[in-house]
Amino acid sequence: MLKLKELTDSWNSMMLSPRKTANEYAKRKDLGFMDGLENFGTPVLMTYLPLMLLALALSGHLKPDYLAVVLFSLGATTFGIFVVSFSFTFMAYEVAKKLGGTAELGRLYYMVSLAAAPTFVFTVVINIAVILLKSIMKVMAFPLAATSTMQLAGDVVAVSVTLYGFYLLTLSINALYGLRWKKSVAIWLAPTLVLMAAGALLFMTVLLDLLKFLVKTL
User: Fold this and answer.
1) Taking phi first (over 0 means left), then psi (-120 to 50 degrees means alpha), and beta for anything else, what does residue 32 get?
2) Total domains, the chain
């Protein structure tokens, strides 16, 4: 297990010097599944909980019953991240094997987490900054257009960080397997498309069930 300072140092170096960092950690065979799990879980505890508490404080709902909901949401989010990250990595691992990759599943899980963790942290930090700035602008009676522009700018930065995260993921996979770039992209693109399709299918199923319920009640 890496210490907290080692974790945060790895996130910073991954964002600033991704190729060098990916190559360095890909050679460390002592890092595996549990290290990846820690890499996924720590950012959630460091950023998600403060973000939710900040949102409650600004909305005036910082009360015990709301805190219970936040803790439940935190647990559900943590579990969901584990399920999605493991499912993604397992599918990526199977694709990698078919493309000639030989690294173990645990090491791939860690390398995926090395790219995902700093991306998650930066995205949440951006969201916190946008929430604070919008609150300040509201108190100072800024025009609605200015607030909307601030939100749009935050969304653009968040999307840019997410796209950069896919670049980090490509570097991580490439450093671990030593495959060509096209194969490295295919390793993460295939499970991404599968999970997106599964999410869309789930959304459509829920939407259809809701429409059926509404039709019966009308």
Assistant:
1) beta
2) 1
